[in-house]
Amino acid sequence: MHEFLTRLPHFLANHILLAAAFVVIILALVAVELSRRFNGIRELTPAALVQMINRGEPLVVDLSAIAEFEKGHVAGSRNVLPSQFDPEHKDLAKAKTLQVVTVCKNGVESGKAARRLVKAGFANVATLAGGINAWRQADLPLVKGKR
Predict the structure, then answer these.
(1) Please, which of 58, 120, 121, 136 could form a disulfide with 101 given CB 3.0 to 4.6 Å?
(2) Which of 84, 89, 134, 88 is nearest to 108 (CA)?
(3) How far apart are the first and last CA of the chain?
(4) 70 and 110 both lie in a single domain
(5) Within this chain, do residues 92 and 126 fall inside the same structural domain, yes or no?
(6) How many structural domains is the chain composed of?
(7) Cβ 135 vs Cβ 142: under 8 Å
């Protein structure tokens, strides 16, 4: 360890761009992690979502395309197309105090929707980490059809 520490300043002096890139990457990772922790959106595992559903807590909003939704969705979820998703809609605005969980195929669209909900004043917002793909990998049941 002593040899490593004595050679480190020499390495950094000879490889300044490499060292700077390393520092930038570390800072970017810290910034991303901090924004994830403090953005007001929780990421749920499939097991955590099952527990919430069993307690009757969440309004689950599935942002999948209609065909994807009909192939399989979380029981009790409501399908809303991303192009029609509006946090200010009168039906959704009634749920501002409820726990709302957004779901999509892989978690990308649901993350965007969750951020929009937080900006619109929703207090309890979460996403299903990994989306329906994670739900399937956890071998949890999906409901087929429109409802």
Answers:
(1) 58
(2) 134
(3) 62
(4) yes
(5) yes
(6) 2
(7) yes
